[in-house]
Amino acid sequence: MLRTAVKKGSYHDSVVLMLLTNQISTIQGVKKASVMMATPANKDIFKQSGLDTKELMESTANDMVIVADVEDDSLLDTIMKEAEEFFKKQSVSAGNGKESQSARSWDQALNQLPDANLAVISIPGAYAALEADRALDEGMNVFMFSDNVTIEDEKKLKEKAHEKGLVVMGPDCGTSIIQGVPIAFTNSVTPGSIGIIGASGTGIQELTTIIDRLGEGVKNAIGTGGRDLSTQVGGITMMDMIDAMEDDDSVAVMIVISKPPAKAVREKVSARLSVCKKPVITLFLGEKPEYHEENFYHTYTLDEAARLAVSLVRGETVKEGEVTVDRSLFYRSEEKKTIKAYYSGGTLAGEAAMLIKDALDLKIPPEKAEGYMLKTGGHIVVDLGDDVYTQGKPHPMIDPAKRIECMNEAINDKSTGVILLDVMLGYGSHTDMAGALLPAIRNLGDQAEKEGRKVFFIATVCGTRKDFQGYDEAVKKLTDAGVIVCETNKLAVRTAIQAIGLDFAEGKKEIKSKKASDTIPGKASDKLLQMLAEKPRIINIGLKSFSQVAKEFGCEVVQYDWMPPAGGNVELIKILNFLRNNKDLDIDEANRRVIMKVVASQPVIKDNTRAKNVIPELNNGKVILHAGPPVAYKDMPDPMQGSCVGAVLFEEWAHTEEDARKLLESGEVKFLPCHSVRAVGPMGGITSANMPVFVVENKTDGNEAYCTMNEGIGKVLRFGAYSHEVVNRLRWMRDVLGPVLQAAIKELGGINVNPLVAKAIAMGDEFHQRNIAASLAFLKEVAPVITKMKISDQDRYDVIKFLSDTDQFFLNIMMATGKSVMDAARTVTDGTIVTAMCRNGVEFGIRIAGMGDQWFTGPVNTPQGLYFTGYDKEDGCPDMGDSAITETFGVGGMAMIAAPAVTRFVGAGGYEDALRTSTEMAEITIDRNPNFIIPNWNFQGATLGIDARLVVEKGITPVINTGIAHKVAGYGQIGAGTVHPPMECFEKAITAYAKKLGYTQ
Prior knowledge:
Elements (H helix, E strand, L loop, with lengths): L1 E6 L6 H12 L4 E8 L2 H9 L5 H4 L6 E7 L4 H21 L5 E3 L2 H7 L5 E4 L3 H13 L3 E4 L6 H14 L3 E2 L5 E4 L2 E4 L9 E5 L3 H12 L4 E6 L12 H12 L5 E6 L4 H11 L6 E5 L6 E3 L2 E3 L3 H13 L23 E6 L2 H15 L11 E5 L2 E5 L3 H4 L10 H11 L4 E9 L8 H18 L5 E7 L8 H10 L3 E3 L2 H11 L10 E3 L13 H8 L4 E4 L2 H9 L4 E4 L9 H11 L6 H14 L2 E8 L12 E4 L11 H14 L5 H10 L3 E4 L5 E2 L11 E7 L4 E6 L15 H25 L2 E2 H10 L9 H16 L5 H13 L3 H17 L8 E7 L2 E6 L7 E4 L4 E4 L12 E2 L3 H4 L22 H12 L2 E10 L5 E7 L1 H7 L5 E6 L7 E7 L3 H14 L5
Parallel strand pairs: 4-24, 5-6, 5-23, 6-7, 10-11, 10-12, 12-13, 13-15, 14-22, 16-18, 16-19, 19-20, 20-21, 23-24, 26-27, 28-30
Antiparallel strand pairs: 1-3, 2-3, 8-9, 8-11, 17-18, 25-29, 25-31, 29-30, 32-33, 32-36, 33-34, 35-40, 37-38, 39-40
Protein name: Acyl-CoA synthetase FdrA
InterPro entries: AllG-like, CoA-bd, OXTCase_su_AllG_h-dom, SUCC_ACL_C, Succinyl-CoA_synth-like
């Protein structure tokens, strides 16, 4: 039976998850299991394995998914416990040694290491190209360990790098050494005067380790990626690095190696090397040169290239190594035995295939097969590092399973005379691959012996004596088990060929005069020369082990704890990149202009008057304003319809609930969103002509905004109640409270809002759920004036008592303030800052600066929080109200840390939860408001400027503090909590804005 476990928002690198898959697969009762991130590509792999489930398909690229075919349901608990222990061990392991800094975004990483010059990328290929593009934009060179990057993307990236004077190493680049610092799968190699430019990984490892064991060293070894010398790419990285290494005075000898290049590209590279002033050694795998040229040497094997380089450095010939073995035990050629070779990487496998074909004297091309470097007459050479073997599975350098499986198949072939393999040491490789292979080697050797056959196990160990696995230890383990261990791959392959009675000829080369081309060398950029001359300053995006190694070698490193941006949606990532790199508009600068408007605003409570006096649209017949984006009466949730009933009764358009509902359903009443007439309304947002509203003017820009007054809590109109008590309170507010406040405000000449907010935020308000300090500060302003007014003592008492009792009274003032400020900010008609958020019980809507009045909507959510006694989440209504304007202004949920007293009331927990929430909100905002300082947040300003791009990129939506209405009209407020907008709103907004700026898919 298939069972699925999903860990939401829990991102782990694919290599780590592959190792966990192997571990879980060993649990008794688990028939088959897979652990991967739920990316589209990985979902296909799950399907191919017969492990696709509904839960998997509903998950996102940021979710870790475990799917297991188990004999018993209870095994899922065992699997999850095993996974937890595994990650704990990974965390402990990653914490050993020197710690590197970590970041969760590009901005954080660059803030920590602003002069970073190398991005090391080891994330899924679907995203690697996009992150590499970002790195180039930030002026960084790129090392792409990632594979599965399209060749079209590779070419674009390399052309872009060339234009910027930078370099892209990779994709699918396993190895580089820069100033002695190992990058990715690399050995601990002595620094020296030899420079190497190679296609990928194992070839460079073989070269550098031979050079090290011969007593010399390597200054820089640059991997270009396996496709760099293809026709499509044209050797861009190779050519740029040749220029740079020639200009690097510390390099005495250069080696250039590659798998078989495209003919035209090979000729271009050779022509450039022919005019090089330094000694150059070339190795184009598959070619068998017959001569050298003066200072321009052409080699056949990696062994030859390494020994020749050392000879040139020393000025003396270095002899070839020897293999001590009893050759009398070898097979004769007429016995027709075959070689089965299993390699960790393509270059060593390619070299083996080349030498075996030479020995077989093949006149016709061998059979082609996916994953095979050679398949002919029973002889096979397999590159186990090929994508066909590693898709969804660990690389053979870190996991012996596939190689053991292949060796079992080889033993069952009676023609097999030799099993040939490599053991790769160094960073990124298995801690003891020799030891991991020994049980299988011994068992298979014993099996062959019992059957009266002899099978020679021949291996090469690629490593140095400084590698943490221990070169001599690995050799000894294999030798003690009867394996013939050879010093280099060439010697191992030759020994294998001799073991089946064959050999190949390798004549001595004469040195001819060099034929220099008319190529004019390019000039290396200062950035490339700097990269080769200094230890790299690295932002590591992906495997943490790469960070740790670089740190050990004295590099400055920031570990970017990457997760797929935009939920892994590649199209959205492209849109984000387009917006970031837009050549016609600096969106960051536009966003800063929006923020400057907000910070410079001077909101003043100017008046309190009937809505019809300031909103002309309310004088055109029966008109009701509602919260949120446009919504028809029939589609409104029940509490909002109930609020409409209350408004009709208040305005005396009808005198009974029945008549009110008939009127509302008749179409005679016109509905408008509050936002369309410069107003905002709490919860249902229902506002009619004679309801009193606060008038807040932003003196900086001269614009006004309006909001009704707060009725208190419980059964109130904004939560859908419409009883006589509710309507009578509204009429008292119209006839008494409003006029009294109007007179007080006029007497004071207006009330500046910013000082009230600044005081209250320091006293523990966040201005959405907690307004008690601001409400009392407002009362403090108006009370002296009210006490001397010529009104009845009862009215005076009632007004002051109401203001004293209504802790949330200031909320509506803050809403009108937020609306006046954000409407002024919207006069900056560019950028991605969110200027409004609201909800109508059906849809959640947002606006962004660059798209003016256009709403971008998605299905509204139901708040999560605490409920009053007798109610639970089943009673809650989907969220309503324009009060989220406070969050766009940088308060409310965005300033949760300011009000630790309210965090439990809204269901957020305690102080630590409030701190975590506000810290997270800071990730999606671009600034802080210096006007509103929060003492218990180290006197930092409140977060300001929700950037829709950051919301989409990071998958973090704004948190909104809110009240909870009963889903049935008449009950009123039944709790309070928090709610998040649907991501869909922000995705739609940035997509529309990108299209407005010229983006095309």
